[in-house]
Amino acid sequence: MSTAAHSAQGSPTAPAAAHKPKTLITLLLHNRLAALGLVLILIWTVTALIAPWIAPHDPYLTDMANKLQAPSGSHWFGTDNFGRDIFSRVLYGARISIWTGLIAVAISFLIGVPLGGVAAYYGGRTGTIIMRLMDVLLSFPSLVLSMAIAASIGAGLTSAMIAVGIVGIPEFARLMFGQTVSLREKEYVEASRAIGVKNSVILYRHILPNALAPLMVQATLGMGFAILTASSLSFLGLGVKPPIAEWGAMISEGREYIISGQWWLVTFPGLGIATSILGFNLLGDGFRDVLDPRLRSGK
């Protein structure tokens, strides 16, 4: 029988790494903090999806006659310096923030995971160069590095996504590197190599599935980091530009009115950032508790 046939029929099967979806969800719901995080994420996700239908006002419609109005029955979160409804803008801001987080984490995952896997599996000069490059990126403060990248590309939503995504690559690369180092000597990997399975297939079919648990945790925590960093870039003028409804940009526009007493301009977008980050962090911690056998056995 040919090597290809062995690869297709006789390749050892790696142990299953993931829980059944029902079991995972059940375990998460039994973790109160993780359940709270999941609820917060669901609220903001649903809000982002249905914002055009539930927003009481056009988030971009200016009304100078009603600018800087305090929260009231007609404007639940008040109005900004252009008379725009802040409640509607916060709802629309969720769409920008969550979308930015998803794209940024996807960039980090899709680049960082292969780099870390290749560096650990093949080792040698290639692995050393890759991981030293990751160390260089990690040596810079995340916000400073993202500011430099965004400034070099040019301000805008796409630039913010790319900048935040690049900053997150080393975290995924180092995590995948550690997982691959611990998995590459397992019996099922050795057996696959012995029968001639390609290295790329081993990485994709055997090592990656068994490394998904910590990667899921990092992706969830990375969403909170991405939302915070993207909002920071917008606040500093390197991300989303006004009048686009984005939480960081809204805080940037409203910060000069805090001293004069218009607290609602920054409070409600700030709460949006805080609660979304809290949700992803709590869910990430819950994933870690559920997916780590040592933590489960200790409870």
From TrEMBL:
Gene Ontology cellular-component terms listed: plasma membrane
UniProt-annotated location(s): Cell membrane
Gene3D superfamilies for the chain: MetI-like
Chief location bin: membrane
Biological process annotations from GO: transmembrane transport
Classification via PROSITE patterns: ABC_TM1
Membrane topology summary: Multi-pass membrane protein
Entry keyword annotation includes Membrane: yes
InterPro entries linked: BP-dependent_transpt_permease (IPR050366), MetI-like (IPR000515), MetI-like_sf (IPR035906), OppC_N (IPR025966)
Pfam families in alphabetical order: BPD_transp_1, OppC_N
Key words, A-Z: Cell membrane, Membrane, Transmembrane, Transmembrane helix, Transport
Domain ABC transmembrane type-1: residue ranges: 94-284
Protein name in the entry: Peptide ABC transporter permease
Organism of provenance: Paenibacillus jilunlii
